[in-house]
Every structure is written in structure tokens, then in C-alpha cells.
Amino acid sequence: MGFLQSSANSTASYPQYTGLQLQTSSGAVPISICYGTNKIAPNVVWTGNFVAHPVFAGGGKGGGKGGVFGGGSTPTSYDYTAAVVLGLCEGPIKGVGTVWNGQSLTNIASGASKSTSFNGLILVDGTTPQATWSYLATKFPAQALAYNGLAYAASADYDLGSSATVSALSFETYGILVSSAVVNGYDADPALVIQDFLTNAQYGVGFPPVSIDATTLLGASGDSSYQTYCRAAGLALSPVLMDQEAASSILARWLQLTNTAAVWSSGLLKFIPYGDAPLTGTLYSGSPGAAVPGASSGTPGPGTSFSGGACTFNPNLTPVYNLGDDDYVYDDGKDPVNIVRSDPYAAYNMQTVEISQRSNYYDATPITAFDQNAIERYGLRIASTVTAHEICDPNVAQTVAQLILQRGLYIRNLYEFKLSWEYCLLEPTDLVTLTDANLGLENVAVRIIEIQEDEAGLLSVTAEEYPGGTATAVAYPVQTNANVLPFNRTAVPASVNAPVIFEPPASLAGATPQIWIAVSGGSGGLADPNWGGANVWVSLDGTSYVAIGQVTAPARQGVLGGGLPAYAGVNPDVSDALSVNLAESGGALASTTAAGAAQAVTLVIVGSEFMAYETATLTGANAYQLTGLYRGLYGSNAVAHAAGASFARLDGAVFKYVLPNSYIGQPLYLKFQSFNIFGGGLQDLSDCAAYVFSPAGRGSADPIAAQLASGLPTDLGRASDAVAIADDFGTVGAGAIVDAIDLGAV
């Protein structure tokens, strides 16, 4: 009875925290900016109402039942809750999709109510101005801030678990300009992103809107604008700006990914795509946020849908000047045009772009483009990987990688020449043609990339070759990471199937009273592959429970697929076959030898009869026909069994519990608290069904038989003495001999 003693002498101690535990704290973390749809980790911007909840034996919070199984007034541990505000990014946002909580995830439909239904969180979209969270205004009026322009998630009763910390959270955020790219239902239009990034009065870089050449940035199908080029080429971005970085660096990265140059000319910032051929792309058709594996099925742009159609980009391919010997300024004896050509063996012929793949839960994924002809001719030359986590669509990434590869591989000639001030209207990205008889150049098109003016007014021009078609990507099929759903480590598994509970005979139990339990997890007659085991609890009153052990593997249990008649012959029974279905546990059975069956190597229990089998023949999914049966083992009766009777294979997966003497004859209430294959997702004990079993102490050894079996002389006293010890050996001739003791020769 020692296990029922008070725990007052226990040396175990449990820390009780008095506040939220934080790893780091900073007052200078920049507020993230999220365009399109991407994954964001929040920051705790406010916390309060920290409460410690004592946990008592049996899993209850706040108090115990007392008595034999209750935890009394001493808690075994603590769980914690707090009110929190988790800052996401600049607003307004359209909603959130998938929420990652550590290694688990939840899909959320964040409709008009903005309720995430996750750990009590509500979503505030970050408008300016926006209302103060009602909980803050009521409970903490002195700290109630509206957090204008900040999108955040908040909970008045956030579960911190036993560690008093906010778990590792990430939110799939439908941010600014979501689904504006019109090439899919999630990403943002790069032209609109750049415009907002440069000019937004709240978080932009303060660039004057009037200093942007809007005709080169924004446009419509049929023109040569940057916006039209991105739509026709299928280019879209979902950047998240979370670290301090120079604005020029951010803009340069976006322009590289979208194959475009920015030019400052005549007091205006112009955007000129490198696209060198007419291009028509198919626009997205359908609702934004259409189902994508790994992304929420919610709608990032409520009330918006796309009708598809096409968008055509027509680049300006007309040279500004046709330059010849009469136009160059050069010294006698020197070539008017100087050519610099890079080594073809130094040109990279494989380019990788690392993206944050939306369809693979925003995992970092490499997308590679290569030129097989260049590889075979010059050998493999791998360029440095371009990190582009603002790209979440593999199809966009393939186009980007191909364009970067082709620009570095096929544009290797640089042309340097000088012109007089008469050509001062030229600007970078302009096309001109060059003619130089000495170099064999005749109306060769080049693109100007740099112009410098010296003190004398002469213009030193650097241009790159302009091979047609190299700035247009061919659509190749994309091979990405397989979208394998990561298992939700906190998902609650199925409850247990109806367990097989019985008392083994003394010869199986080692002369110790025990109960054996075959248990597995499943529902609807099918096994749950995520079921990892169960904690076993017992109660004498059906109210207060104590843990007595743990099941860590499913037992091979099931039901009979057909009836089995009674048997009165000599083992083995070769006339009958036992049909079993193990679908509820997903179990499998294997055959053994005739000698193994005779030794009960394949011991099973059917109803209350112990038997063994020799051959297991698979007849269907988890269905078997067992033959070569050894019936009525260990003193059980070889009775008839109806279809649907319980079946269990008795092996190491069977839970075995040694009964205290006080439990014999008492109704025991047993609960099996399931957990998943990672040990998480523990069921609430109150949700577990209770199974009642009254043990009779069958596994106890008969005292006289035990003394006789010891082989030692046994004095049972005189026949005239009062009976001090007795055994019931049954009725003579009532049945087969259950056990025998050889007392030796007379």
C-alpha cells in the first residue's frame, strides 16, 4: 500500500513563476512590413494579468478531490496564463491563414470577425486610426494603447503552459497589397510594392511621389511599363521587411529579381525593364487565396475575384541614335570604340535562387536554372545562390533564376566610347547602334548602362551588348520540394478502442495477481496512425484517478470475423479455422512452427479462452485466418465464440499491472489517456471513457499447491486439527486436468 501514502516526504519541487519568462527583450525592434502573403514571427509588445494555476494529481487545475486518489491540497505543478499583445507588422492587413505553434499548425479562416479561434487570440488588422482593444481599455486603462497602424493578435487568457513562456509562433499573414499581382491569388504586384515602399507616408522612405516617372512604373497591357512587364512575365513578390537595411539595397534586390533597371534622369526616377521581346502572359483566374497545399484556404482579399485574361508587354526596341565614325570623339591612332569581353570560362552556367516556398509551408527551397550547352562546352560553373525569400511561388522563382542566368551568361561584351555634348539627352538603358569598320561592327545594337561627363563636356559612355531574346525567359517545368504535411505534434489522437481486460492464470502471471490489458487507438473500426500510446489511470470510486503506468505501443487486438465452434478433442484442432480482423489496431500476425504453436508461442485470447495457432493466412487488409489451433490453454474452456467476439495477441505490447491485495474483489474504473506518436496532444482525462473491471485475484498461486510444488517436505498438521490452510482443487471428473504436480516415487 506504499503507493497510497502521502507525498509529504517527497523531495521533488516545482518552480512557481511570478511573471512571463522572456529570453530576450528589446525596445528597438523595427515593425515588420509585409507585402502579399508570407510567414511572420510576432513580437510580444504588451503583457499583463499573469496567473499561476496549480495542477493537482490526476491532471486537475485549481483544486483536488482529496481522499485516496486525490492530490489533496498540494499541487504537483503549475500551468500559467497571461494577457498578451503580439505585434505582427504594419497594417492594415487582410487577415491571417496558417498559424504555426512550435511544431504544430492550425489553419484559420479569419473572416469579418477577425477571430482566429486559436488560444483565445483575436486579430486586429492595423488601421490608422484603430480602436483600443476592449480588454485593455477595461482592465488596464492606464496602459491602453490603440497601436495605430500596427496589426496584432491579442488574447486575454493566453495559455503559457508549464514553462510560463509564449511558444514559438508564426502567422501566415495576408499583408499589404495581397493578391494585387494578378498572377496568382497571394502575391503582390512589384510595381505597387515599389511605389508604396518609396512613398508611403507612414512607413515609406519619404521619396517624393512627383519624382517618380509614373508612366514607366505603372501601366496597362500593350505598353512597356514595369507593371506590365511583371504581369506579362509572371513576376510577383511577397516581401517581409523585418530587419534594418538600406532602402537602396532593398530596391536593388527587388529590381534584380524582376529584371529591371532604375534610372535617375531629368529629375525623375524611371523604371526600365530589360525585356527585349514582346511578351504575353496569362493572368490569374479565380478567387484569391484558392486552396494551395500548406497555405490557408481563407480569402486574403475578401470580395475580390480575378477574371483572368492576358497581358502583353511591348518593349521599346527603337535605337535612339545610329552612331558611326563621325559621331565618336577619339584621339588619332586609337580605336574610337573599345571592346572588353569577359572570359567565357568565367561565365556562370548554373544559377540557384533560394525562395520561401508557400506550397511547402514557407520552407527555404532552392530553385535552379542551368544552361546544358554551356556546361558541356565550358564545364560546370555555379554562381552564388541568390537569396530571395520575397518569392514564395516556385513558378515565379524559375523565371527569375532563368533571367539572372541568361543575363550573366550571354551578355559579356562591354563597349566604351566617347561622344560630344550634343548627345547629352542620352541616358542609361537607351538603345543605340554602333558602326566601326575596323572592329567589324555595322549597326550593332547596344544598351547604354553608364554615362559620365568630364570637365570638357565630353560624355564617356559604357554600353553592353544586346543579343535579342536573352532578356526573355523560357517557361521550364519546375521541380520543387514535395509538399509533405509536417505532423502536428500537439494534435489530439483518437481515443482507445474498447480494451481487452482480463486476469491471467497463475502460470502466466508468475503466481502474482495481475490484470492484463490489450489496448490500441482508433475510431470507426480503423486504427489511428498518429496514436502513440496511452497513460493508464485507475480509480476506486470513478471520480478520483491515479496513474498506474503507460502503454507505448498498440496491442494487436480486433474482433472475430466469423464464429468458432466449441472443441472437445485433442490439440491441435485441425478441423476449425479462426477468422480475425485487426483493422481497429492495424495489427499483423505471423505464422510459427508446429512446435512453436504447441509451446504457445503465438498465444492469443478470444473472449476468455486462451489458445495458440500455427498458421496465419492473410485474407484481406489486417484480416487473417488462423489454423492449427491449440484450444483451451491454461485451464480455459474451449467454448464456442460468436462473430464479433474480442481478440488480442498476447505479446510485449500488452499492459500488465500487479494488483494490490486490497483491489481484489473491488470494481476498478480504468481510463486510457491517449497521446500521439511524439508524446504530445494528450487527451483531457475527463474526455476519456471509463472501463469497469472487477478482479477476482485469479493469478494467485494455490497455497497448498505452491508448497507441494516447492519440493520441500510439507507438514499440513493432524487431520483432527482445525483447518488452517485450504485449496479448492475442483470436482473430481468435472473436466480436464488444469495442472499437475509430480510428488516423486513412493
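^ that was protein a. below is b, sequence first then the C-alpha cells
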Amino acid sequence: MRTQFRIISLLLLVITGQLSVNAQLLRSKPEAQGVPSAAISSFIDAANKSSNEFHSFILAKNGHIIAESWWKPYAPELKHTMYSVSKSFTSTAIGLAVAEGRIKVSDKVVSFFPSELPGDRSALLESLTIKDLITMSAGQSPDPTRSMLQQTNWVNYFLGLPMVDTPGTRFLYNSAATFMLSAIIQKVTGEKLADYLKNRLFDPLEIYHIDWELNPEEINSGGWGLRLKTSDMAKFGQLYLQKGLWNGKQVLPADWVEEATSFKIKNAPDTAVYAKATSDWAQGYCYQFWRSRNNAYRADGAFGQYIIVMPEQNAVMAITSETSNMQDIMNLVWEHLLPALSRHQPGIDKKTQKNLTKAVKNQILKIPAGVPDPTIASAVSGKNFALKTNAAGLKNIRFNFKEKGATVTIETGEFQDELTLKKGKWEYGTIRKLGPSLTNTTPPSAGTPGFKVATAYTWKDDNTLLLTIRYIESPHTETFVCTFENNSLRLRIDNSIKGMNPGGNNNNEVIEGSF
């Protein structure tokens, strides 16, 4: 009888569209799931008119992808830096370890690292639990993450920090606490966090070729550093929407999904009522998930990476972007999509469907317009500019201008990379120079191919060249502003993080060079 009930339950989920019968999400026209194409077109139009730079989105309803788009040069096959979306995957590993009986959220953190403990540890440290880490209430202040990045032994450093609050009583966003969750997983399983999740989460969902940054002791960073595809984000959100059920298998216990995504602690207790009504960052924190307005919850990462789960609408939204206003992107979802997802609106409008199909295929991040190649282009072509000592680590740079494009060779210490450039068109390549990032704990080694980039160039005026380098597996972009005069080069490196986060790698350096 119990087996028959389970089969009937699974069939009902398939019929109602709440369960994908394959490891890949199914695809459907929006109207087939009760959503007008016009609403999605309105969202895309609003996204393009906003000050935010969208890179991709996938919208799923009833277990079906009803819209997806990538703004070229971003593409479906590319991974994207998740920043703190990584935390929700780390939380999932904790849930799996709890289900396997390896740990309990009430376990004391000190019990896992006896050899790393300070000799004069406090009672507050002794009381610190996994639950305190996972709810961002570890008792430390300020957030020690940036100072931890400068250390060689992160666990020892974290445990030696003073604690000012009783653990579990006050929220303070603390990515170092999430790292400690990764360290606990590695301690109790003998596997790195990413490896532990491979058979238990990534393989069942057919999430392949992910990578996750490591610290100096070969422990996954946990709170950041995960890179995966937008489709992988959507599948992870759908798994949570389906209470851990995937392809007929309970990948994650349903009670853990409920526990991990329900309100645990006030993250902004002093927020006024009227302000809370308009803020998705004042709804409370869960187990490395955020509560959201409209009874939704989400994983989110710096600069606009989101997995938004909307249980009442049976929908999931995955977004990658670069923005300094993360609330604005949430507002676009609530304004343009939520009403359409909340009401079943049958009927097909072929014209709006055609318009949406065209829109999702033709999104592109524009390349700055400029003037025709000036005469100075031929004068500097092939010349090697030796650069003065600089923080970016650049040694030499040279351009070769041709009839239908150009190449640039960039030397950074032991690395020399040549990039193909076109005017008005993205060209793809790799570079081993570190791009803009809040955290770079895993620089490329001599044997790695480097970071995937899309490049283009334009002449701003008769002496100024703009070289755009998009790191297309991250949210960020660099622009080399090259001003040529006589035999000299004045190079300013602008990056897209500038002004978005004061703690990031956001200094726009001016470098002098000559040939």
C-alpha cells in the first residue's frame, strides 16, 4: 500500500508539472504554464533600461523552463562566479552530512579542531555551534573574512579571534563562518566540500565541471568561489522547490529543505516597518539562504547573482549579472514577473510569443562606439611598450593593428597572452592575468589555460584606445584606456568593481610605459 501511494504521489507531481521527469528541466512555452509571454518581454525590456548589467536568466514554472536568455558574450555553456550563492551549496552539504548522521547542527565547533584551538579559549568559543555558523551568528565583530584571507591557516585564525556576542544571538554577515562549515565537512568526511557534493548533489542533478576555490590548505572556500552554469543554478533552485526530490529520488531530505529555508534570525532588527516592506534584505536569514518578500527565499551573491525560489508561484528564477543595486533587480522580478506567475492566464498570443523568442535570442552587451583607426595606430603597431612597476603586475604590452582587427600581447611576469581584437564584435580568448574580484584565492598556475575572456577595441579619439576585456566566467570587466603620445604610453586600467564595493580590488591604476 505504501509503495502504491508513493507511485501515485509521484504521478500526480509529474501531471501537475511539479516534478521534472528528467534530470534536465523540461521546456515549455510560457502560455502553456499560464504565463503570458508579454510579461517576460516586459521584464527583459525593463532589465535593459535599468542601470544593471544582466548576463543571463532562466525562469522556470511548474518544473518547466519557460524563458531563458544570455546577454552576449555570456553564453549557456559558460560558468559564472557565484560569490555568496556558494553559501547555499555549503549549507546543503551540511544538511546531507546531518542526514548521514555524521554531524548535528548542535555540535560544538571546537570539537572538530582540537589541535587548532587557542590555549586560553573563552567560554563563548566553547559554546559556538554549527547552527551559529550557519545562521551567521558566530559572535564575532567585525566580519573577519578579509583579514582571514591574508593568513595561511584559516581555521586556526578563525578560532583565535575574540568573540563579542553570545553565539546565536546577533546576526553579522560572516563569510569566514561559512568557510568553517566547509572545513567541518572536510574534517568529518575526509573529502573536500566540492568532492563530497559530487555524488550526492551534483551528479544526480547532472551538474558537471564545476570548480570551487581552495584556501592555502586545500579546503574549499565555502562562502564564495563556486562557479557553475545558469542552468545549474536553476536546477538547484528547482530541487529546493521540490523539497529535495529529483527524478524520483529524494536527493535532499524534505525536512532539511524546510529547516534550511525557514526564518531563523533577524538580520536587520532595527529596520522600520515601512522600510521592511520594500526591502528583500530585511526579511530574515535562514541556513545560508535569505528570506524574501512575497513568501519567497533565495540564494544570492555579490553583484547580482540570484536563485529565487517562489513556492506559492511554483517558480524558480536564476539570474547572473553585475550591479551595484541588488535590490533593484529583485524589484524588477516582483514588478514584472510576480503578477504573471501568480495568476493562471491561459490563451496563446502568437505575436507576443514571437517577440519574446526574438528578444531572448538577441540580447547583447554593446561595445562602445568610436572613431576610425587613426594614423597613430600604424605608428605604434608592433612596438613593445615596457611598463613601469605596477600593482597589476604588467611588464610589457604591444599592439598589432591589421586591416580587419588587431592583436594585443600582454605580459605579466611568467605569463604572456595574445588576444585577438575586433572593432564592434566580441572575440573570445583566454588570459592568465587575474581579473577584478572581491576574492582571488586561487591564482592561475603556469600549467593552466587561464581565464575565459571576450575582448573588443575601439578608438575613443585620435590618441586614445579603449581595450575591453570581459572575464566571461565572472561578473566583471576591465577596460585598458591607452593614451599614446610620441614614444610613450599612458595606461589606465578601469574595472567594473570600482565604486561597487570599497573592500574589493577596485583601484584604477595609471601605468607609464615607453618603447
